[in-house]
Write a structure and sequence with these properties.
It is a single chain. The chain is an alpha/beta fold. About 35% of the residues lie in helices and about 15% in strands. The chain is built from 13 helices and 16 strands. The longest helix is centred in the last third of the chain and has 24 residues.
């Protein structure tokens, strides 16, 4: 069940002059066997492309991230590096799970974690950083978490005026990148989902990166922009509930269980599939990949064992996608079942 844990500011008024100019540090317990501590040394001083400050095109932009027990300290300890693009958003939603099924591990924010979030919220004099506790839906939790938050706590705003951008926790996005995503979405919002990167799957399950315009699969690591209206009543969220029945024990070789694991790990494919089913265009925005700094991913947590492209079940993202494609009849059966249940619910009140 979805639970919200918003880190509230203290009731006492604070002025920035009284705040320590450096955020508190978290312990590095989770950094064992990683290179995360060298993050600051490896990050370029300036982006490859010149970046000009830009103002948000609309107010209600929600930037959403999910993370894991081995990454939470890295993410919070380096918020100062990410703050440039965080400033572009109205709210930054950090989605965590109390229980992570894939890793069989728990996560609870430490006092140091909370102090860091408090520090940044005090800078903005509001709860700009929101932490949500969610059911573990895998990497797509970054989408389900922010959707549930807005559904439950945001009122009296046209759904078309609420934009959601989902991003990864191991890549730095300059605010020009987010600006361009929102600009394209505003220019043609209906039945279009925009991303910085996308590809087509061709013969022999190889893939070709799309330079611009429509693609088959959009990639979450590069940012994906939706309006809340795109997500409303999408059966994707009903399908994701089936992830709760996955048995993560290594000795369960049931074909349907393995298929659901592939869906759990293959969030880009699942997002793309469900939106195409609803006749959406998946569009790669050209010329903004340059506004992403990939050195973070390459030098730190992006290549650890919990990265999706190194998962020990299918060994890569593409292999997860291939398993879903090879067993697509399961996915179509789920969709037909969900649609049938929706239709039955429409009829039952008439019968009564």
């Amino acid at each position: 069940m979805f639970q919200l844990n918003t880190i509230k500011n203290n009731n006492n008024k604070h002025s920035l002059s009284k705040i320590n100019l450096m955020p508190p540090k978290v312990d590095t317990t989770y950094y064992k066997n990683t290179q995360a501590q060298s993050f600051r040394l490896n990050l370029p001083v300036q982006p490859v492309q010149p970046v000009q400050p830009v103002q948000p095109l609309i107010k209600n932009i929600y930037l959403s991230i999910s993370t894991t027990p081995s990454r939470i300290s890295f993410l919070l300890n380096n918020l100062s590096h990410f703050e440039m693009y965080h400033s572009y958003a109205h709210k930054i939603i950090i989605n965590i799970c109390s229980k992570y099924k894939r890793f069989n591990s728990n996560l609870k924010l430490s006092n140091n974690h909370i102090k860091i979030i408090d520090f940044y919220n005090l800078k903005y004099s509001e709860d700009k950083y929101i932490v949500t506790y969610n059911t573990d839906n895998g990497p797509i939790t970054k989408l389900t978490g922010v959707y549930n938050y807005i559904e439950e706590f945001i009122f009296n705003i046209n759904l078309n005026n609420i934009f959601i951008i989902i991003i990864d926790d191991d890549t730095k996005y300059y605010n020009n990148c987010l600006y361009e995503l929102v600009k394209y979405k505003l220019s043609d919002p209906n039945k279009n989902i925009y991303s910085n990167c996308g590809f087509n799957i061709v013969k022999n399950n190889t893939y070709i990166q799309v330079k611009k315009n429509r693609c088959q699969i959009i990639e979450g690591f590069s940012g994906i922009c939706f309006s809340m209206n795109d997500l409303n009543n999408n059966i994707l969220f009903t399908f994701i509930k089936y992830y709760n029945v996955i048995d993560w024990s290594k000795n369960n070789n049931n074909e349907l269980n393995i298929f659901l694991k592939a869906c759990f790990l293959g969030d880009d494919y699942i997002i793309s599939y469900f939106f195409k089913k609803q006749n959406y265009n998946l569009i790669r925005v050209p010329n903004i990949y340059k506004y992403m700094d990939k050195s973070i991913k390459q030098n730190t947590i992006g290549f650890n064992s919990d990265a999706l492209h190194k998962n020990n079940i299918f060994n890569s993202n593409m292999n997860s996608y291939k398993y879903i494609m090879d067993n697509s009849y399961y996915l179509n059966t789920f969709i037909n079942l969900i649609q049938l249940c929706k239709n039955i619910k429409k009829v039952i009140p008439i019968i009564n």
